[in-house]
Write a structure and sequence with these properties.
With 322 residues, the chain is an alpha/beta fold. It is 49% helix and 11% strand.
Length: 322
């Protein structure tokens, strides 16, 4: 009797759909920036975009091929089930080309996603006061802008859906500080949630999977994030006081959970603290399925690579379903 072996992509999708799995818990990172240390190559996001305009088409194609190879090499070396593409340049045409190249090189082995948020996020310091005034002085205009951004994103997604090759979107607008959301729950329900719901519904109706990312303390708006109906929540930030055990108990039957390994400890903690953070995430995320293992943000520039490798060592030994 033949035993069917699931691809990393299939395992990732099963976790998003909260289906039971055997074997190792799926893993991915929003970004793995340490490509210089791991492969001797600059990460695509760190390359000088202005150089694109000086390249010949042959050079551009080499650049596309190199980006694709870096993403695939990262997934293979660190056993990622999914690849979050950061095309450079990031226009639609180049995004579609990068999707095609990765599919040509790796088939449908990996789940592919791109950034797809179109909701308001925490404004920059210089824009915060003006944004808050606008909520009071011209709320209808703010809502019109929110709706316009969502509609444009969905128009773009329709083109991508017709093209094929992409599995989903990661929505990376950050809503929360470590102390809580940048808007009160009531304001969030007026200016964010309806448009997040519309965006996610539109993507889902096209057949895409949707992961909603935000750092910080999401607990005051957790119910609204769930109402928007994403397939998964990332990053379950312990530095924002988010306890994966509590979130699993509250909403683990409604949404896949991704993350919770403390990035701060990977940067500055002891090995023992890193190991305990990994074990806590696995111990509380895995039961019943619907969990994808990752850090509480990404593998960012300046993080010691050996700390990420330590994290993966524990995952390989202890992140396995019977």
């Amino acid at each position: 009797m033949e035993v069917s072996i699931m691809t990393p992509r299939e395992r990732f999708i099963s976790a998003l759909e909260r289906k039971p799995l055997k074997g190792r818990v799926p893993h991915f990172e929003l970004v793995f920036f340490l490509t210089m240390e791991a492969f001797g190559k600059v990460h695509p996001s760190h390359r000088n975009y202005s150089q694109w305009f000086q390249m010949t088409e042959k050079e551009r194609q080499l650049h596309r091929e190199d980006m694709a190879e870096i993403y695939i090499a990262t997934a293979e070396k660190y056993e990622h089930s999914a690849i979050f593409l950061h095309p450079n340049p990031s226009n639609l045409e180049e995004t579609l080309r990068l999707i095609d190249i990765i599919r040509e090189k790796s088939g449908y082995k990996y789940f592919l996603m791109i950034h797809g948020d179109a909701t308001f996020s925490i404004p920059s310091g210089s824009e915060m006061v003006n944004f808050v005034y606008r909520l009071k002085d011209e709320p209808d205009k703010v809502k019109e802008e929110a709706d316009f951004m969502v509609n444009k994103a969905l128009e773009r997604a329709e083109i991508i859906a017709k093209h094929g090759g992409l599995d989903g979107f990661a929505l990376c607008s950050d809503y929360c500080f470590n102390t809580g959301p940048f808007l009160s729950p009531s304001l969030f329900s007026e200016f964010i949630t309806p448009y997040l719901y519309k965006l996610i519904k539109g993507y889902r109706d096209m057949g895409f999977y949707v992961i909603k990312h935000t750092d910080g303390n999401i607990m005051p708006i957790l119910d609204q994030l769930i109402q928007a109906n994403p397939h998964a929540l990332h990053s379950l930030d312990p530095q924002g006081g988010v306890d994966i055990a509590e979130v699993k108990k509250l909403v683990g039957d409604k949404v896949c959970l991704i993350g919770n390994v403390n990035c701060g400890l990977l940067q500055t903690g002891t090995d023992e603290e890193v190991i305990e953070s990994v074990r806590y995430a696995l111990r509380n995320g895995m039961p019943g399925g619907g969990y994808i293992f990752s850090t509480s943000n990404c593998i960012y520039t300046g993080m010691p690579l050996e700390r990420y490798e330590l994290m993966l060592d524990i995952w390989r030994r202890e992140g396995n379903y019977n």
